[in-house]
C-alpha cells in the first residue's frame, strides 16, 4: 500500500482468495437469508421486495395508460379506473419511492461509508423488513378483496363516508409501513452517531451519509403525524368518533393539514437520498472534490427543516385564508434556494472536471436535467394564482413525476450501477448500461412533458375519459411510457446476467474515494478487518488521477490526494 493512501485510511490487506469469504457466502442455506442480521443481506432482501412492488405499481400504470390511449372510457369502468390509480399511487409512493434508496442502497452502504461493522441495531433492521412485507401483504389483501378508490391520499370524506370498508385495511397497511420506516430511521441515526470509524468526524462524512442522516430525522419526526391521521380515519369510520364529519362537530380539512404536514416532508424522504447518490457519482466521474462540500451539507439540513413548513401549498384551493396561502407560498419559494444550491454545486463540480461518461454518470446527468425541470415547475405551483389555475390537472401529475420518479428512480438506477461491482463483485456490460441510461431520460421526457401542456390547457387528472382534443398528448405520453418501461426493464436483465457471466470486479473499479471502496468486492461479513482509521476529508481526487476501469494496478495505488 502506498504511503499516500495509508495517510487517509488503513484498511485490512485482502486475503489470497477473497471470493471465498464474503457476505454472500458467510451464511449457508436459504433459511439464513431470512434470519440474517447482516445489513448487506437485508439490503438485498429489501431490493427483492421493492422490485415486486415496483412491478405491481408498474402494472397499474400500464393499465392507466392503456385506458387513456383513447378518449372514451372503454377498457375499465369508472370505479375500476379509480381503484387502478389508487393501487398505482399507494404502492408506488408508500412501498417503493419512500423506501427505495434508504432501505436498499442506504442499508448496504451506510455502515461501509462510515467504517462500521454493521448498523447499530441489526435485529431491528431485520424486523423492519418483516414489518414492511407484512404491511405490503395487508395492502394487497385489501385490494384483492374489493379495492380502494380514494387515491393514495385517503382524503376525507371519501375515506370516511363514501369508500368501501377495505380502505381501513389499506390505511392500516400504510400505518405499518410507517412504523417500518421509523425503525430504519432510528437505526440510521444511532449508527451515524455511535459507530463512525476513528477520525470520521462530522465534516469528513460523505454526502450520501449526510443525506441519509437528514432523511432519517425527517422520517422519525414526520411519520408519526401520518400514523395519527390514518388512525383517525379508522376511529371515525370504524368506531364512529366525530373527527372529520362537520355534521357532528368535526373538521374535514383537519385531515388535509395532518396528511400534508407529513407528506410534503415525505417528498424529501424520497429525494434527499437521491441528492446524496448523485453527489457521490458526480464527484467520482468528474475526478474533482465536490464543489462547496460544506454548503452542500447545510443545504441538505435546510431542506430537511424547511420541508416541515410548506405543507399548506397543497391547500391553496381548500379554503384556507389568503394570508396563510401567501405565507406558504413564500416559504415554498424559500425552500427552492437550498435545492438550487445543490444543482449549482454539481454544475461547478463538473466545470473543468475530467469527466468520463460511464453509465452511472449518464444517470446522474439525466437526474440533474429532470430534477431541474421538475424544480422549476414547482415554482409555478408555489405561486398562488398559477396553482389555482392548474390544481388537480395533469400539470401537477407531470411535476410530481419529474421530481419523484424522474429524480428518485433515476438516482436509484444510477446508484445501483455505481455500486453494483461492490455489491456483487461483478461488472456489467457498459454499453447496454449507457444505452439504458439515455433511453430512460428520453423515455421519461416523452412520457411526462406532454402532461405539462395538457394540464395548463385544463385537462383534469384522475379521469378515465377526456375531450378528444387531448388525445394526441395522451398518445404521446403512452408511447413514451413504452420507452420508459423498456429502460426500467433492461437493467434488470443485464444486471441479472452479470451475476453469472460478468467479469470479476476489482475492489475499486471506478478509482473512487470513500471507505466502501477500501474493502473487498463483495465485502466480507463484518465489512473491515481491522477497522479503518480516517485521517482526511472525503473526495480528495488528484487532478491527474486515472479514470475508471484501469484495473492493471491495485485500487490503493490509483488513489489520489488533493484537489
Describe this structure in words.
By secondary structure, this protein is mainly α. It has one domain (3-558): Cytochrome c oxidase-like, subunit I domain (Cytochrome C Oxidase, Chain A), CATH 1.20.210.10. It is built from 19 helices and no strands. It has helices at residues 3-8, 31-35, 39-67, 78-97, 100-114, 122-145, 158-162, 166-194, 207-239, 252-286, 293-306, 322-334, 336-350, 359-382, 384-390, 394-424, 430-456, 471-501, 555-558. Helix 3 (39-67) runs antiparallel to helix 4. It starts with a helix and ends in a 5-residue tail after the last helix.
CATH class: Mainly Alpha
The proportion of strand residues reads: under 5%
Query: What is the name of the CATH superfamily?
Result: Cytochrome c oxidase-like, subunit I domain
Derived from helix and strand composition plus strand pairing, the structural class reads mainly alpha
**Unreliable stretches, pLDDT < 50, 5 or more residues?**
1-18, 549-563
- The helix/strand series, from N terminus to C terminus, equals HHHHHHHHHHHHHHHHHHH
How many helices? The count is 19
Task: Work out the radius of gyration.
Answer: 24 Å
Average per-residue pLDDT, rounded, comes to 88
What is the total domain count? 1
CATH names the topology as: Cytochrome C Oxidase, Chain A
Number of strands: 0
- Rough outline: globular
Taking the sheet with the most strands, its summary is:
none
Distance separating the two termini = 21 Å
The percentage helix is: 55-70%
In the CATH hierarchy, the architecture is Up-down Bundle
